[in-house]
């Protein structure tokens, strides 16, 4: 599954969702994880609603977004697109989060994570809920 991080360098989750200029995207599975790409946020006007929508659209292929902070309206836009926002509240190492997520995937992931893992394959199933 694809997971995005709000990170200036790719090493630490160190940005607020709404202030991040880019997202570092990883492919993460139980046995393998690798950096895929950096998605850059373009300019989308001065309206906060437009900026949030543009970020959410940019992340449409991601199942999870890890960020230091995210506001309620932004989190709601992600959830509406079946992207799960995860707040760290403080700076956190990307590698540590990736490792923890892999451990959870190897075991018995919670229902929300199982849905996130199947996001690419189960669009119609998710729409029914």
Number of strands: 7
Determine the fraction of residues in helical runs and give it as a percent range.
25-40%
User: Main beta sheet, described?
Assistant: 5 strands, mixed
Mean pLDDT across every amino acid position: 87
Reading off the top of the CATH hierarchy, the class is best stated as Alpha Beta
Distance from first to last alpha carbon: 20 Å
> Could you state the CATH homologous superfamily?
Dinitrogenase iron-molybdenum cofactor biosynthesis domain
The poorly predicted ranges are: 122-129
Shape: globular
Strand proportion, as a percent range, falls in: 15-25%
Instruction: Write the element-wise H/E pattern from the N-terminal end onward.
Output: EEEEHEHEEHHH
Gist of the model:
Helix content is 36%, strand content 24%.
Structure description:
Mean pLDDT is 87; it is low at 122-129. A hairpin with a 4-residue loop joins strand 3 and strand 4. This protein has a single domain (2-128), classed as Dinitrogenase iron-molybdenum cofactor biosynthesis domain (Nucleotidyltransferase, domain 5), CATH 3.30.420.130. 36% of the residues lie in helices and 24% in strands. The chain has five helices and seven strands; from the N terminus they run E-E-E-E-H-E-H-E-E-H-H-H. Strands 4-3-1-5-6 form a five-stranded mixed beta sheet. A two-stranded antiparallel ribbon has the order 2-7. The chain is globular and about 45 Å long. The two termini are 20 Å apart. It has helices spanning 48-58, 72-80, 94-106, 111-117, 123-128; strands at residues 2-5, 12-13, 22-28, 33-40, 64-67, 84-87, 92-93. It is an alpha/beta fold and 129 residues long. Helix 1 packs parallel to helix 2 (72-80).
């Amino acid at each position: 599954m694809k997971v995005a991080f709000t990170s200036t360098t790719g090493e630490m989750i160190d940005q607020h969702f709404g202030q991040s200029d880019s997202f570092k995207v990883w492919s993460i599975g139980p046995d393998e994880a690798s950096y895929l790409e950096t998605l850059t946020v373009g300019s989308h006007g001065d309206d906060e609603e437009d900026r949030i929508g543009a970020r959410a659209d940019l992340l449409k292929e991601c199942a999870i977004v890890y960020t230091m902070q995210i506001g309620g309206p932004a989190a709601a836009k992600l959830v509406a697109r079946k992207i799960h926002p995860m707040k760290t509240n403080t700076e956190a190492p990307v590698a540590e989060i990736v490792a923890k997520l892999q451990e959870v995937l190897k075991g018995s992931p919670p229902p929300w994570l199982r849905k996130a893992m199947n996001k690419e394959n189960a669009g119609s199933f998710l729409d029914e809920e």
